[in-house]
Specification:
By secondary structure, the chain is mainly β. It has helices at residues 77-82, 85-88, and strands spanning 11-15, 25-28, 32-38, 42-46, 56-61, 65-71, 96-102, 108-120, 130-137, 142-143, 150-151, 153-158, 164-170, 178-184, 200-202, 208-209, 215-221, 227-234. The radius of gyration is 23 Å and the shape is globular.
């Protein structure tokens, strides 16, 4: 069955430490309500003698531009980076970082970008401060083939003690990888190679204390605690 493309199913992440060796990816999400994307194409148009007056067009170049608008939220790590004095008041390299987009169809695209047209504040006195930022792609994107978060089948059944759930995973864990999990009323799936250090470590055997009806996401991570595989289930605990 065909599936309509929804903007909120696109995951946008920005590197908030572009000067460091390893990127620190943070999701662009909180406060941003509108996403507009374009290729800003360069066109060559001509009408040749043999075309009898009819014209033709060649696309000779382009530049990816994504414009985000919304409201300001203090404390959100992506917003704190974008609207920091170092970025807003800086030029040149201060405005350059990387953007990673995971499409709804699981395609992952990564660009070096420049943050442009950053605006913060403004609007009606009783409304949140409006914000805008445009992300201008620098050069061609990288298509991250094979860098998809693989899916795990996660099953939750009643555990041995009241309030506990027993979790079963398929396929089984590979090599020296380990498990991390998170449970709450709703839990977002991690992105590929998202740092899950803050999630709870699980040995793959012990029951987990969780609330029936909540969600649980279990991720298989590498030695650096970066997500490689993940799955989600609705919790069933022993009453």
């Amino acid at each position: 069955m065909s599936e309509v493309s929804l903007n909120y199913k696109n995951t946008l992440e920005i590197d908030i430490t572009p000067q460091e060796v390893a990127p620190t990816w943070k999701r662009i999400c909180k406060g941003f309500a509108n996403l507009a994307q374009s290729m800003n194409e360069v066109l060559y148009q001509a009408s040749y003698l043999c075309d009898q007056g009819w014209g033709s067009t060649e696309v000779t170049g382009g530049q990816y531009i994504s414009t985000l608008t919304g409201v300001r939220y203090f404390g959100d790590e992506a917003q704190e980076y974008i609207f920091s004095d170092e970025v807003m008041m800086g030029f040149g390299e201060s405005r350059k970082t990387s953007l990673r987009i995971t499409r709804q169809n699981a395609t992952i695209i990564q660009w070096g970008v420049t943050l442009a047209n950053i605006t913060e504040g403004g609007g009606d006195s009783q409304q949140p401060s409006s914000i805008t930022v445009a992300l201008h792609g620098n050069g061609a994107p990288t298509i991250l083939s094979g860098a998809l978060l693989e899916q795990l089948k996660v099953v939750s059944v009643a555990g041995s003690l009241a309030g506990d759930t027993a979790i079963f995973i398929n396929p089984e864990i590979e090599g020296a990888n380990t498990y991390k999990y998170k449970t709450a009323a709703t839990v977002e799936m991690p992105t590929f190679e998202e740092d899950l250090t803050a999630w709870t470590t699980w040995d793959g055997i012990a029951d987990i204390t969780a609330v029936t009806g909540n969600q649980i996401v279990v991720a298989e991570v590498n030695a650096s605690k970066l997500a490689l595989k993940a799955g989600r289930a609705t919790v069933t605990s022993l009453a």
